[in-house]
Amino acid sequence: MPFRRSSGLLLHPTSFPSRFGIGDMGLEAYRFIDFLADNNQQYWQLLPLGPTGYGNSPYMCYSAMAGNPFLISPDRLRDEGLLTDEDFAQVPGFPLDTVDFDRAIQTKLPLLQKASENFKVQATSMQQTEFAGFCESKAHWLEDYALFMALKDTFQGTSWHTWEPAIAKRQPETLELWRTKLTAEIFHHKYLQFEFFRQWTELKRYANLRGIKIIGDIPIYVSHDSADVWSHPETFCLEEESRLPALMAGVPPDYFSATGQLWGNPVYNWEQLQADNFHWWVQRFQSIFDCVDVTRIDHFRGFDAYWAVPQGEKTAMNGTWIKAPGTALFDVIQEKFGSLPIIAEDLGVITPEVEALRDKFEFPGMKILQFAFGGARDNAFLPFNYVRNCVVYTGTHDNDTTIGWFEQLQPYERDFFLGYLGCVDPQGIHWSLIRLALSSIADIAILPVQDILGLGNIARMNFPGKEEGNWGWRYRSGALNQEIGDRLNSLTNLYGRAPIKE
User: Fold this and answer.
1) Going by fewer Cβ within 10 Å, which terminus of the chain is more open, N or C?
2) Shortest CA distance to 65 belongs to which of 161, 137, 151?
3) Residue 101 belongs to what H/E stretch?
4) How far apart (Å, rounded) are the C-alpha atoms in residues 31 and 390?
């Protein structure tokens, strides 16, 4: 799909300011969209929106299709008459610069529970019809997800494969028994999804009206402890008895890690998926296309070939490359949806076969400026090696901020970088890298909000390989001020990325 020359910002909704300790879909989200539109940006890129589990990672969710209920705005629930100001009387103070996930969740859970109970008894006939329509339209994943979450609450958060075998293996009579037993809990989880998608749809509509398109994110793999794996075990490579992944996802040893990366997600049973004409993937793409305008596919190379590690291994060293039917999959997706608004995350060790798959469907790849200055002229991340059909970033959620990155450069890398620039922007080294991104020939330039704010290492979003302490950065209300907006707007216009007035 061709993209116009444009730019935007990368920010996950959890990073918004909020008195409830975690960013949500309330007023600050709308203010952020206004900031984008007022300063000639055309994209808002975010991380996956699913319900997070262990480590609060948006890349390890309880569902590939559900939304994160902790992004629901309690203020908007109050405006709908489902909560009152009195319900907020016991909301504690929270850190302004980070998400205290445990406290934020403990604070929002009772508010969401009360809103659910009030909706159940107060909903008008129109709201009841809307809720019923939502449940029917999403039934292909919502029924299993709501039951899964209700069971997970009942069994104190334990992974589904440890539940009694009749439930873990989804014996129909046992499932029906639990559906009856957990009727109230299932309604609650359905309501939370209804409210999430209602608030998100309104927010997206506002963004689109202001000329902002949203770039979403699909992690190629799903968490083993998810409604997807529990309800569609045939789609994944699982051991018959233990229900653990028979083959685990990861990447092999490379320059960055002598033992590789062992993610632990189950890999797909691609033979079964292809026999079913990729039905599960069609539903997954339908879900993401319903929520966003453009989709970034994480670990795109796994659609050509994936690294599979046998169960029981402690590192990713003893894995095997297995071919995946990427061409056949995207042929089906393209036939179903037409021109595909997809960005391919093609970072890491990329083979000619992966590039051919990307280029066959004309998916733009990613260019990360922080990877550009190791010294080699053929470095694909150096701007003079770009093609137009790509997306350039100063850095991503997995990188340090630009200031943090610059402070840790080796002397030869710093010399190359400064020599490449020719001169440093008087507003700071972060604006130098931003200027380099915006001035490149890449069709789209995406800038992390931490970089336009000029923040250091403390604002980093994620440290790959670090299990805890990630995803928590937030900015303060008012940080995205007129001065920063004017500077961003000026550079956006200077380098021809402002919207074309028609």
Assistant:
1) C
2) 137
3) helix 101-122
4) 29
CA distance 368 to 330: 25
Whether residue 255 is predicted with pLDDT greater than 70 in this model: the reply is: no
Q: What's the helix, strand, coil split of the chain in %, to 5?
A: 45, 15, 40
Question: How high is the pLDDT of residue 152?
Answer: 97
What is the spatial distance between Cα 58 and Cα 398, in angstroms, rounded to a whole number?
A: 12
CA atoms within a 13 Å half-sphere pointing along the CA-CB vector of 149 = 25
Question: What pLDDT, on the 0 to 100 scale, is given for residue 228?
Answer: 98
Specify burial of residue 412 (Cβ count, 10 A radius: 0-12, 13-18, 19+).
exposed
Q: Distances from the Cα of 278 to the Cαs of 221, 259, 283, 335, 412, in angstroms?
A: 15, 33, 9, 12, 48
Q: Which two tokens stand for residue 298?
A: 């994480």
pLDDT of amino acid 258: 85
pTM across the whole model: 0.97
Q: Quote the CA–CA distance of 403 and 430 in Å, as a whole number.
A: 6
| Whether 477 contacts 453, CB under 8 Å | no
Residue 379 has pLDDT above 90, yes or no: yes
Using 50, 70 and 90 to split pLDDT, how confident is the model at 256?
low
Q: Which residue type is seen at 212? A: I
Q: Which run of H or E residues covers position 355? A: helix 352-360
Angle at 186 between CA 20 and CA 84, to 5 degrees: 35
Q: What is the distance between the alpha carbons of residues 283 and 278, in angstroms, rounded to a whole number?
A: 9
List active site positions.
298, 345, 398
Return left, alpha or beta for 401; rule: phi > 0 is left, psi -120 to 50 is alpha, else beta.
beta
> Residue 136 CA to chain centroid, in angstroms?
25
Percent of the chain past pLDDT 70, that is, above it, reads: 99
Nearest CA to 362 among 273, 448, 278, 443?
Answer: 443
> Please, which residues have CB within 8 angstroms of residue 428's CB and are 6 or more apart in sequence?
403, 454
Look up residue 277 and give its amino acid.
N
pLDDT at 348: 84
Torsions phi, psi of 127, nearest 5? -65, -40
Contact 205, 25 (CB under 8 A): no
Instruction: Classify residue 21 as left (phi > 0), alpha (psi -120 to 50) or beta.
Output: left
Q: Which amino acid is at 43?
A: Y
Question: In whole angstroms, what is the distance from residue 349 CA to residue 93 CA?
Answer: 45
- Average pLDDT of the residues in 43-59: 95
User: HEC profile for 260-305?
Assistant: CEEEEEECECHHHHHHCCCHHHHHHHHHHHHHCCEEEECCHHHHCE
